[in-house]
Amino acid sequence: MHCRTCGAALNPKAEICVSCGVRPLNGTNFYQECGAPTKENQEICTSCGSRLLNVNQGYVFGSSADLVYPA
Ligand SMILES: [Zn+2]
Ligand SMILES: [Zn+2]
Fold first, then answer.
1. Where are the domains of the chain?
2. How far does the centroid of ligand 1 lie from the alpha carbon of residue 6, in Å?
3. Could you tell me which of 15, 28, 37, 53 has the fewest CB atoms within 10 Å of its CB?
């Protein structure tokens, strides 16, 4: 896998990127599977067509305060 912050190739079980010190999925700059550059709100990789895993999804689900819509 690749670090989503710096794009470094990592062991799939790596919890922290040894290159930049950030959790591998805790970023939006690169796709973890193929290492292609990605943008913050991108949902699929424009290089290989795979769906991006994004910690932001967990973040959104975990922070209901951000998802309160007016009735
Ligand atoms: Zn990194
Ligand atoms: Zn890709």
1. 1-61
2. 4
3. 15
